[in-house]
């Protein structure tokens, strides 16, 4: 098995880029329906700017980051993930990517962990359908 197969299984692309708020709602959606626990941290860059002292103030959203763990209570499995910023708009997310062990083939990951990836993939697809 190739690294491409591992990347394909560990990467869950969103049908459209998600805002930070939408991504956080997705984490709740996953936790409730898995059922399981989602622990994550977020960082984001925001800029506030005024063109002149009495001019309008503008808030700009910059790059966002989200990373954490997802665990399934029914599978007794967990894995670490990060949400990748969208390449066109780094204030949004384009995918969930689970941790990849360098040099491992797909069969070297526990079956329960691979099932967790598939379960999360299904829930992401359901969530995407709800917000479109």
Layout of helices and strands, plus pairs?
Layout: H1 3-10, E1 11-18, H2 20-33, E2 36-50, E3 57-72, E4 77-85, E5 93-98, H3 111-131
Please tell me about this protein's structure:
The chain has 132 residues and is an alpha+beta fold. It has one domain (3-131). Helices cover 33% and strands 41% of the residues. The chain is built from 3 helices and 5 strands. The chain has a 5-stranded antiparallel beta sheet. Strand 4 (77-85) and strand 5 (93-98) form a beta hairpin. Helix 2 (20-33) crosses helix 3. It is elongated, with a radius of gyration of 17 Å. The mean pLDDT is 93.
Strand-residue proportion = 35-45%
Number of helices: 3
Strand order of the largest sheet: 1-5-4-3-2
Oligomeric state, counting identical vs distinct chains: single chain
The largest β sheet comes out as: 5 strands, antiparallel
Task: Offer a concise description of the structure.
The chain is 33% helix and 41% strand.
What descriptors fit this protein?
132 residues; alpha+beta; five-stranded antiparallel sheet; 3 helices; 33% helix
């Amino acid at each position: 098995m190739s690294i491409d197969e591992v990347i394909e299984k560990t990467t869950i692309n969103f049908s459209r880029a998600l805002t930070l708020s939408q991504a956080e709602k997705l984490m709740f959606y996953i936790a409730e329906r898995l059922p399981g626990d989602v622990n994550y941290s977020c960082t984001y860059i925001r800029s506030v700017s005024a063109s002149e002292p009495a001019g309008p103030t503008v808030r700009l959203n910059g790059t966002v980051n989200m990373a954490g763990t997802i665990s399934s209570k029914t599978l007794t499995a967990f894995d670490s993930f990060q949400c990748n910023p969208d390449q066109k708009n780094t204030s949004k997310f384009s995918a969930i990517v689970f941790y990849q062990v360098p040099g491992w083939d797909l069969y070297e990951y526990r079956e329960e962990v691979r099932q967790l990836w598939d379960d999360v993939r299904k829930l992401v697809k359901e969530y995407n359908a709800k917000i479109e």
